[in-house]
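Can anyone check this?
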Amino acid sequence: MSKEESKVEQILDAAQELQKLREENTQLKQQIHNLRSNVASTSSNSSSKSKSDNKSNNNNNNNKEGKDEKDSFLSIIVFGASGDLATKKTFPALFKLFSRDLLPKNVQIVGYARSNMSESDFHTHITKHVKGSPEHISAFKKVSFYFQGKYDKPEDFSSLSSKLEENEKKNSNSSANRVFYLAVPPFVFTATAQNVKKNCFSSSGYNRIVVEKPFGRDLESARELLNDLDQLYTEDQLYRIDHYLGKEMVQNLMVLRFANTIYEPVWNRHHIKSVLITFKEDFGMQGRGEYFDKYGIIRDVMQNHLTQMMALIGMEPPVSLNAEDVRTEKAKLLRAVAPLDIKDLVIGQYGEPINKDNNKDSTNNSSNDSKKDESKKDESKKDESKKDESKKDESKKEESKKQDTKKEPPYVEDPTVEKGTITPTYAVAVLHINNERWRGVPFILKCGKALDERKAEVRIQFHPPANNLFGSENPNELVMKVQPGEAVFLKMVVKKPGLTMENVYTDLDLSYSSVFEVKELPDAYERLILDVVRGDHNLFVRADELIAAWEIFSEVLHRLEDEKVKPLTYGFGSRGPAEGDELVRRAGYVRPGNYHWKERSKI
């Protein structure tokens, strides 16, 4: 054999040996993967788990839940049970789910707070905003109990866990699942989260943590909060709640876009001129001043509720309706939004009540339309509810509430806020999305308290026709009313019946009260708490969404505070400062005129 042939033989042998090593390496990797999978699948039986095992354990429990949900025991623990949010929202939502048999039959609902409260007082406290039959209320009280404890004392959490375990063992032989609802002030949040993890976790079922806003005050504090939680929990254990995502019409945004052929082709800068998202309340602080004064309207409403609605409107179609696919597209959209420039922002603070008669002339057509809508719809509803005594009582309460708002002082005179405060109660911001779909389209976010009406809505305004043959100045506008009176309507120009070619500005109207036989829509908190129990993250805010949202607003918030920018004063019950309307106009939103809403007959 020549030297060259020998060399070739050696190379071939070496190549075969290398191939053999590669195959063995692949087999080893597969064995390691199988071992890891086996460890992960059995990790739910161990109470001391690594972070990755925690995630695997939670996933296993989520899968297992569907099989033994009827037999498993569910404990729902509400921290901050004596607070306003828990009393008005959390416990009434839990009662609705309980009375509709949407919670497991083996359930206990626990209120945890520092307040000294007897069991009887606690039951009165959690049912004072509840509506239901005496039988349901009595049954709800039987599964609810109060536990007094401090948020920074581990031994109190250990005692709570022992109490939970005692009831779990007494009522079920299956898995014990726990949902921890943290409706606590920011200054005790971290301590509560740490003590829940170290002293209250179930070892035989899933553990889920519901986190209420505020999610920090700015980008830096949000990152600190996320880091604290990241040390304790996996992302799939966390449910950051933004109750606006649970509202019926907000959920309808995705259905409207992606279930109907006509919208997606025109859902872009070539056809849409502007997007206006509005949140208005016709009352002031009503006892929330101490909390609100530390945050203001931008942090309290715009950075979360309105920004999440913008994300749903603007995001690209997700690969599927899976929670991670939807949240990924929302996060992408938010990252494409340029940080808010102070020149694109107007802030205000409410003062003395205005004379309603003097304010009529300054009210724009859009507001008139809305009020006309609501007044006629309310009249229709009143006619339908003459025989319904409960609805009459509700109407009286609303009227009483309106009377109370007239007695509210200017914001700076509210006894619950700091003297000389410059916290804004009103804001209008124009945001710009730097991507192919939306470049050049203004997204206008508007929110405020103590304004002329209560409403939340989205207005998507389209470009006028290139060849405007009929000379109409009114654009097509898709309106989605979130509250009150859920509705979707599309404004358009049509020919007025008769022998002339006169046209009229009207709409295609889908008012929920007229079309659907629904006596009562579920409250947002009902839907969201039920999703927590089901393990569905779709309507909850992921960490990267939160960071992206803060990146939009943090810089301008710091500038407002560092430069002590004083908000413009507007009258209680007005539309807000005129400068806000002017910014909306300059951004490109056209207020339609000659629009008349007609009451629709019920189908």
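Reply from J.R.: I decoded it. Residues 36-68, 358-403 have pLDDT under 50 and may be disordered.
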